[in-house]
Amino acid sequence: MKGTAPAVSASAVPPRNWPLAVRLWNDHIREHRSKILLSLVAVAFVAASTSLYPVLINWAFQALSERSSWAISTLPWLVLVAAGVRGMATYAQVALTQQAVTQIEADMQKRLYRTLVEADLTSITAHTPAAWTQRFTTDLVFVRSALTRLVNILVREGLTVVALFATMFYLDWMLTLIAVTIVPFALIPVSRIGKRLRRVSRRTQERTGDMASLTSETFSAARVVKTYRLEDYLSEQADNSFEMLKRLRYKSMIQKGRVDPLMECVGGVAVALVLGFVGWRIMSGQSTVGEFSGFLGALLIAAQPMRALGNLATIVQEGFAALHRYYAVIDEPVTVTDHPGAKPASFGADTVSIESVSFSYGDSAPALFDVSFEAQAGETTAIVGRSGAGKSTVFNLIPRLYDPSSGRVVIGGEDIAGVTLASLRERIAIVSQDVVIFNDTVGANIALGRPGATATEIEDAARLAGAHDFIMRDPLGYDAPAGDRGSNYSGGERQRIALARAFLKDAPILLLDEATSALDAESEQIVREALARLTRGRTTLVIAHRLATVRAAEKIVVLDGGRVAEIGTHDALVAAGGLYARFHRLQLQAD
Ligand SMILES: Nc1ncnc2c1ncn2[C@@H]1O[C@H](COP(=O)(O)OP(=O)(O)OP(=O)(O)O)[C@@H](O)[C@H]1O
């Protein structure tokens, strides 16, 4: 598919975080809540057993200074129990969190994939395949990482902070209130940093997609790159892309790096305030140094978990940036879909009527204007025209890859807008010039024509397509791997595999996009014979490039600039001396 269509709007104004978080909870997290809850219990065990250590050591000191045998008989066991509980709880916590979080990530990947395979072509072609792939990997890793840390850090450090503040409140509520007054001074800048980071993170994710597209294009087109000596041109583009990413990454690191010093300063201000107040009280005889030391200890201990919470806020913002991109795709509306009341199609090899159809790709200039013609039942209709005349666009409208802006497509008297997509597409086979072969066995590739086909049916289809012989030349036969994009086969062989797929599908309507590249004479002959067999008894529309194909067609539709210029048989159109006659003369000169 050419060109680009309106993008899935990943850079639109970001929605607020809370609704996104609630949505994520409802869509993906809620069903794992029991695991997450258990994991939180495990976190509590880890925290409790950790805090037991200082207590045990304290007891050991006391017991040893009193030369009590308890220090030897019981304490080592208690230490072992505490270590055992801590070890098991830590493991349980990791296992439970990861079970839930990796499952959530996989669920999100599955949903994203499902949404994308069912999305309109307009949405799919808005980004390159590599950029889409990156959504499944890098983007969702941010979400996973944020979720993991939320479970691990928020609860552990959050509980510690709450416990420490409770102790402080118990020791001296007034001092605690003084210390707490500075909390907003920490929250405001941390939230600002978070917002900035979210923006940077979104841009980083977009740029990573661009970079992935560039590298994947470079390596998939290695032959062109080398023969056209594109190494310098592409390296320069890649350098720019990597530089841009570096700048964004640096920006994000700098933003993150601001959190620690900020928390440090805020902590310093808290300690200074408390010191000042305590100093004043001690001087005026209202307090003693002893009362104050415990409080200060707790305040200093609280600094570390507070810092961890500050850092967590930044990581969560990165997760939100990725989550926003995820939901932007999920929410993209699908327009080509079953209309209300759609019925299963019942047409066979009937007449395909294109009735006053106009169409434009997104906001581009119209590709078809008021196109009308009929492809008669069981006959072959050739569509010819210059490059960009709209031939492929007509093809796109028949299986409803796109819907016309106006007019309709009717097959066997049924408006295709009124039938279910599945039943419509079941009845249409497309053999296009860019043959799509998946990295699977050759047998599996043919079987895509009709999932569930038996080995005999696959073989029969391959024989009809003239593919059986070359498939059997490989000792593995139908189990031979086709290679990445069918790289183990020649151009002519790939076309025959595609034809075998169409034979197996056995659809009554056939859309053929004739290959422009010439095959060797023998392959050409085999493909031609196979095509003749395939079109028999079907309504065939063919985008024709070769004179032989056009001559063989019962009707020729000439498109020009998105309009129908001429319709007729070969002889009639040559006699009319119009556009087709001109093509014909040029073709004869070329042959
Ligand atoms: N996905 C797309 N987005 C935007 N414009 C498109 C898209 N696909 C095709 N077009 C435009 O629509 C017009 C018709 O294109 P179409 O592919 O139907 O021509 P064609 O006759 O099949 O050409 P060719 O023989 O070169 O394949 C062209 O102007 C083309 O640039």
Automatic annotation (TrEMBL):
Its main location: membrane. CDD domains: ABC_6TM_MsbA_like. The chain crosses the membrane at residues 36-57, 69-89, 153-171, 177-194, 261-283. Keywords: ATP-binding, Cell membrane, Membrane, Nucleotide-binding, Sugar transport, Transmembrane, Transmembrane helix, Transport. The keyword Transport applies. Gene3D superfamilies: ABC transporter type 1, transmembrane domain, P-loop containing nucleotide triphosphate hydrolases. InterPro entries: AAA+_ATPase (IPR003593), ABC1_TM_dom (IPR011527), ABC1_TM_sf (IPR036640), ABC_transporter-like_ATP-bd (IPR003439), ABC_transporter-like_CS (IPR017871), P-loop_NTPase (IPR027417), Type_1_exporter (IPR039421). This is ABC transporter permease. It comes from Acuticoccus sediminis. The lineage of its organism: Bacteria, Pseudomonadati, Pseudomonadota, Alphaproteobacteria, Hyphomicrobiales.
